[in-house]
Amino acid sequence: MTDTYILLVIAVSALVTAAIRFLPFLIFNGSRSTPPIIDKLGKTLPYAIMAMLVVYCLKGVSFASLSSFVPSLLACAIVVLLHVWKRNTLVSIVSGTVCYMLLVQLVF
User: Fold this and answer.
1) Residues 19, 39: one domain?
2) CB of 31 within 8 A of CB of 60?
3) Residues 97 and 75: beta-carbon distance below 8 Å
4) Alpha carbons 5 and 69: distance in angstroms, whole number
5) Claim to verify: residue 25 and residue 42 sit in the same structural domain
6) Is 92 buried (19+), middle (13-18) or exposed (0-12) by CB count in 10 A?
7) Contact by Cβ (8 Å): 24, 39
8) Residue-wise over 57-77: b if at least 16 C-beta within 10 A, else e?
9) What is the predicted pLDDT for the residue at 26?
10) Do 27 and 53 share a domain, yes or no?
C-alpha cells in the first residue's frame, strides 16, 4: 500500500463519517418537523442499547465460582442504581466499567 492510498482511505472515511453526522441536520433543519418514527427511535434506542450492552457484557459470565460472577453482578447493580438516580447513560456505563475493573484487578 502506498501513502497516497492510505491518505485517500482516511479522507474518504472522514468524509463519509462527517456526511452521516451532518445529514440529519441538513434534512431536518427546522423548517420541517421531525417524523414521529424518528422521535420514537430517539426515546427508545438508549434503552435498547443499554439492554444490548448488558447481554453482551454478561454473555460469558460463569456461575461456577464467586470470583467470576460477583464483580459483574456488583457492577450491574451500580449501573442500575446510578441510572435510576442520575438518569445519565454515560455516567452509568463509565461508573459500572470502572467498578468492574477495580473489583477484578484489586479484589477478586
Assistant:
1) no
2) no
3) yes
4) 47
5) no
6) buried
7) no
8) beeeeeeeeeeeeebbebbbe
9) 83
10) no
103 and 55 both lie in a single domain: yes
**Residue 63 phi/psi, 5° resolution?**
-95, 15
pLDDT at residue 33 greater than cutoff 90: no
Look up cell 482511505; give the residue. 9
Q: How far is CA 34 from CA 25, 28, 45, in A?
A: 11, 6, 16
Q: What is the count of structural domains for the chain?
A: 2
The closest of 104, 94, 96 to 79, measured between CA atoms, is: 96
Grid-cell match 441538513, residue found = 26
Cell of 32: 420541517
Q: What is the mean pLDDT of the chain?
A: 89
Domain span including residue 102:
35-108
Residue 30, sorted as left (phi over 0), alpha (psi -120 to 50) or beta, turns out to be left
Q: pLDDT at residue 95 above 90?
A: yes
Position 61 confidence tier, pLDDT thresholds 50, 70, 90 = confident
3-state DSSP assignment of residue 60: coil
